[in-house]
Specification:
about 100 residues, alpha+beta, Ubiquitin-like (UB roll), 2 domains, 4-stranded mixed β-sheet, 4 helices, about 25% strand, rod-shaped
């Protein structure tokens, strides 16, 4: 129980472990930087600045992949049906805004 408490309250835990006879402090868990990197991210799709859908794309994907995935989404198809796109605003790994 004290070993589980150690990462949250190391000072009192080490004192209590020392009292009951442990010579060494438990090893703290290490951080794995690879676990923090996402392979796939979810970005919002806006039409004229209003959120219409979200899509999942690979992390670091370029504009063409985001547009392709957006065109496959049924909600986006409904809003773009028969309309011409005036401008596309793409912020990598953040959002795609379609101005019609």
């Amino acid at each position: 129980l004290l070993k589980m408490l150690y990462p949250m309250a190391p000072h009192i835990s080490s004192e209590l472990l020392e009292i009951i006879g442990y010579e060494e402090n438990p090893i703290l868990p290490s951080v794995d930087p690879q676990a923090l990197i996402k392979d796939e991210i979810e970005i919002p799709i806006q039409i004229n600045g209003k959120l219409r859908a979200t899509i999942k794309i690979p992390a670091g994907a370029d504009e063409s992949i985001a547009i392709q995935k957006a065109n496959e989404d049924e909600k986006i198809k409904k809003h773009l049906d028969g309309k011409t796109i005036k401008k596309l605003i793409f912020v990598k790994d953040k959002l795609l805004n379609i101005v019609i």
